[in-house]
Amino acid sequence: MTAPRPLLLADARLVDPATGVESRGGVLVLDGRIADLGPSITAASAPEGAQIVACGGDVVAPGLVDMQCFVGEPGAEHRETIASATAAAAAGGVTTIVAAPGTTPPVDDPAIVDFVLRRARDTGRVRVLPMATLTKGREGREISEYGLLRQAGAVAFCDGKRSLRNAQVMRRALTYARDFEALVIHFPEDRDLAGEGVMNAGELATRLGLSGVPREAEAIVVDRDLRLVALTGARYHASIVTAALSLDAIAAAKERGLPVTCGTSINHLTLNENDIGDYRTFLKLRPPLRHEDERGALVAALAAGLVDVIVSDHDPQDVETKRLPFAEAEAGAVGVETMLAAGLRLVHSGDVPLAGLLRAMSTRPAEILGLEQGRLAKGAPADLIRFDPDEPFVVDPAELRSRCKNTPFATARLQGRVKLTIVAGQAVFEA
Q: Taking the complete model, does pTM exceed 0.90, yes or no?
């Protein structure tokens, strides 16, 4: 095999979210890794035969790591495939996606982990890392074989959007995971308290005549889980938190030194319950979009570093399950392709610095998962993105690369175009 040509990204605004340092210069890529970077790396310094990309002041940063993305395979190829999900990811600047385990069959066997990895190798454009289930069949009764699943390549354990009702099963899962130094990711929702709720409980739900999900349905499970983490000492990540009550509990747990992290979705950071408007089902999500006060608390927690990770919560749903009355429609939205541009709303509004946003989308998820990615440093993997944070565009669902088009940002005016996505030194997307 011929060695790939050296690649030099010149005249870029270099943003390293791991250190918060911004500088002007270039990046030299050799053999899939960052060989050098900084002001001295210019087109004139390029090695012979190198491909030179003139960035014209665009941002060059580590590729994004999305910790929650539904890829469809196996069993839901009508909603998404690894090929279509990774094409959407590459167009959105996401170079690593963590595949949710709620497939059919669920990812509870080493053979299914192997299947996902092989399909990703054969048809994927970006890195795909499978999550395996916390419990067999995601049924919440018997815990999965974490040791064998980890050996097969699972990076974390989660039952998707099925919260574990049984505290004893959760305790066993945390204890077993601790023995394998495995990461437990849990979706915090008291299913009994959430009941048949379809949006955030409050005045707006009452006016719309829709049943509500109280924020306590999330906070109660977060409280329980954190007490079990204190009991077991296991590594725990709350997949999506949306309520100030949950943030208060997580802040207290971190102050006590517990091995706890949390994420939230780009939807909950940039939208609120009012966006549902006239029963727009593309904004029916789990957890539901919250009150503006809760969104503001989430943004403040992100800026302070309390919220570790931003996920796309990419959840494609076909037309038949979305073109229904709001109460009957499936929850979920596509988001991997628009995650960065939507997040840049927070940068343009002055709520979050660019390095802070990128840290939550790349560095912190990579650290939590134990990956090399997420850094702009010599020797780091050359998973890189080039984007113009100011270029405006209107989201056209028909142009999205996902198989399904259920975006909550349809016709939204966003800023921030990805122009180049590189994985292991190879371009996987060019605008």
A: yes
Establish whether 313 is a catalytic residue.
yes
Burial of 300 (0-12, 13-18, 19+ CB in 10 A): middle
Cα–Cα distance measured from residue 292 to residue 269, given in angstroms and rounded to the nearest whole number: 10
Q: How many CA atoms lie within 13 A of 153 on its CB side?
A: 18
One-letter amino acid identity for 341? A
Residues 6+ apart with CB under 8 A from 270: 295, 342, 343, 345, 346
Full set of structural domains in the chain with CATH: 7-60+382-401+416-430 (2.30.40.10), 63-369 (3.20.20.140)
The three-class DSSP label of residue 175 is helix
Query: Of these residues, 313, 315, 383, 388, which one is catalytic?
Result: 313
Spell out the per-residue pLDDT of the chain, length 431, in tens: 456 799 999 999 999 999 999 999 999 999 999 999 999 999 999 999 999 999 999 999 999 999 999 999 999 999 999 999 999 999 999 999 999 999 999 999 999 999 999 999 999 999 999 999 999 999 999 999 999 999 999 999 999 999 999 999 999 999 999 999 999 999 999 999 999 999 999 999 999 999 999 999 999 999 999 999 999 999 999 999 999 999 999 999 999 999 999 999 999 999 999 999 999 999 999 999 999 999 999 999 999 999 999 999 999 999 999 999 999 999 999 999 999 999 999 999 999 999 999 999 999 999 999 999 999 999 999 999 999 999 999 999 999 999 999 999 999 999 999 999 999 999 999 99
**Token pair for 260:** 């706890």
Of 118, 136, 64, the residue nearest 359 (C-alpha): 64
Put residue 272 in one of left, alpha, beta given phi > 0 → left and psi -120 to 50 → alpha: beta
**Could you tell me what percentage of the chain is helix, strand and coil, using 3-state DSSP and rounding each to the nearest 5?**
35, 25, 40
